[in-house]
Amino acid sequence: MLTVERVITAPPEAVWDVLTDVETWSHWSPAISRSEVDGSDNRIRCGSTGRVYTPVGVAVPFVITEFDPGRLWAWTVAGVPATRHRVDAVPDGARVSFEVPWWASAYLPVCSVELRRIQDLVGR
Predict the structure, then answer these.
(1) Are 51 and 36 within 8 A, CB to CB?
(2) CA angle, 24 then 19 then 48, to 5°
(3) Please, what are the domains in the chain?
(4) Cβ distance 70 to 87 under 8 Å?
(5) Residues near 32 by Cβ (< 8 Å), separated by ≥ 6?
(6) Does the structure show a pLDDT above 80 at 83?
(7) 0.85 cut: is pTM over it?
(8) Which of 35, 99, 102, 115 is the most exposed place for a label (fewest CB within 10 A)?
(9) Cα torsion for 32, 36, 37, 41, to the nearest 10°?
């Protein structure tokens, strides 16, 4: 896995809240215009399923495949292993890491944009 990370000056809980609330995903990901999770309160959990919509309106299914509350989650999108999201407490806030498979290395610049946008949403 290839990783991009950023220290965000906000409590880890605030970052986790943004990462797990599907209603916020379109605010920080340029690859998502809308998202929905099946049968819940817009929060993902282990095994959650739903859809993300691309900027051109195509719905793509997802499944949350790994979930450690407050710490990390990973998913498959359209059945393909995708990003792993991790939050670690550090003295200045939270270190947020996004990991992608080696064959998705071209997605790392998008992940960097996402981390900056998350900082803008929750940072101080």
Answers:
(1) yes
(2) 95
(3) 2-122 (3.30.530.20)
(4) yes
(5) 25, 26, 52, 53, 54, 55
(6) yes
(7) yes
(8) 102
(9) 120
